[in-house]
């Protein structure tokens, strides 16, 4: 599990040098998407990559019973659609949808993006690092699936979200304004009732405050302990 400092997560855009960013800006075009917009549809062909400049998205699919399962959350600096380009496979296996507010992304045609990679060796390294981190994340999730309870899974998710997407206030508390309770449930593949029960427990123990699509960690040490041990 990652540390406590918000903003450690580095996306593809952040790995690039300034001249590489400028080259990509010339190859693509900026687009703005409204809240709850679908950027990329599951099983539909795609001929471009997206680089997120502002805002957040969820990558999701439906399980066999039609329930949403959130596979990942991506934010500023992240790249989307790169696997379809790398594998020359135009169909994607999950849907990408905006979260909360409007989102701005750089849309780069697939052929232009692959040419950019060939012309900029450092960009290949940046993409490799992003894919390596994602593979490690996927391996960790697969290893933990079914082996930990809802409480521990929730604590790990909250800690992860706070680390990657949190905003630290002047009093040192970290707030995340991103997911609804249903989406939190979908992230850890748990029922809404089970997640609601655990959130009540955390609030009652003054570990956490919750609001509409937000939570604030009051006791980071306790969240980390639960993430490791799984109990109160």
TrEMBL record:
Keyword Transcription regulation on this protein? yes
| An MF annotation (GO) of this entry | DNA binding
* Domain HTH crp-type: from-to ranges: 148-221
| Entry keyword set | DNA-binding, Transcription, Transcription regulation
Keyword presence, Transferase: no
Q: Which GO terms describe its cellular component?
A: cytosol
Q: Which residues form the Cyclic nucleotide-binding domain?
A: 12-134
The cross-references to InterPro entries, in alphabetical order and at most eight, read:
cNMP-bd_dom, cNMP-bd_dom_sf, Env_Response_Regulators, HTH_CRP, RmlC-like_jellyroll, WH_DNA-bd_sf
Name of the protein in question: Crp/Fnr family transcriptional regulator
- Tell me which species this is from: Actinomadura bangladeshensis
